[in-house]
Amino acid sequence: MKKIAPLALSVLLLGTVSAYAEQPTTEGTEQVEKAGTFIQHRGNITAVEQRENAQLFTVGQDDNVFNFYVDDKTLVFDEHGNEVKLKIGDTISLSIYADQPMILIYPPQYAPPVVIVEKDDTANSVKVAQFDENFLSDDGKLKLNLNEESVIINTKGEKVPAKELQNYNAIVFYGPTTKSIPAQTAPEKIVVFPKLEEEVVNPEIAPEIQAIIGEDYKEVDGKIMVPLRIVAEELDFKVASTGNGAIISKGALSYTITRGETKYGHNRALKHFDVAPALLEKNKTYVEYDFVKELLNHIK
């Protein structure tokens, strides 16, 4: 099965992340804007919350807030390509796939493949993009001048030949650029990671839910079963464990789910599953897809 990656929502910042901006100055040249694979969201971390298998960070405050998840698959670097840990107060930029399904909840919640921590004391820049056989970025704004000394590695730290760059997404760490169109640079370091698989793994599952769970679903007695907590929390519901199930709530809505029982509470009413919720993986309760589809309908 193939995954489709997490959510993409409103654009706050396009193109290069960080301080040394690409500023083409050639006059009389017509530029055609090209859409890139990624869009960026930028801000300061103001809070952090530990979730079951991830950390949920809050960026901004008042009416300008968004959340993002970081797990063991998220790539987190500073502007020189050093792996770092996120903390409150950091200025960060998220790279999100531009064409991913979105869930209309507030505040927005993202699960970015790449997070860059920005520093005030560096003139370095970071570009998250795909590059063609000529090492030109997919938005047409940056061309890489590579040589035998160029450092290109994968997420395991293994070296990757330059010719393979077009088969991956790339995080490019670089300094000054030329004032040409496109800007050109000799990068300090490139980290590649797998491209997004475009195939939807199950057409019966809404793209918004597919983006959350990827391959993580089962089939029991002809019913698709999905992990309860991760989906409910992503849809901004509160999840409280009862020991043998959970209470799912948001505002006036409340659901009481019990493993092994087909009846479940919905506010003061009783409703029924065809297949009872079950612990199909360690510490992970699965419920019928139709139930999380109901949760999704409450936020649309």
TrEMBL record:
Coiled coil: none annotated. It holds the Pfam family Cu_amine_oxidN1. Residues 221-297 form the Copper amine oxidase-like N-terminal domain. Residues 1-21 form the signal peptide. Keywords: Signal. InterPro entries: Cu_amine_oxidase-like_N, Mao_N_sf. This is Copper amine oxidase. It comes from Solibacillus kalamii.
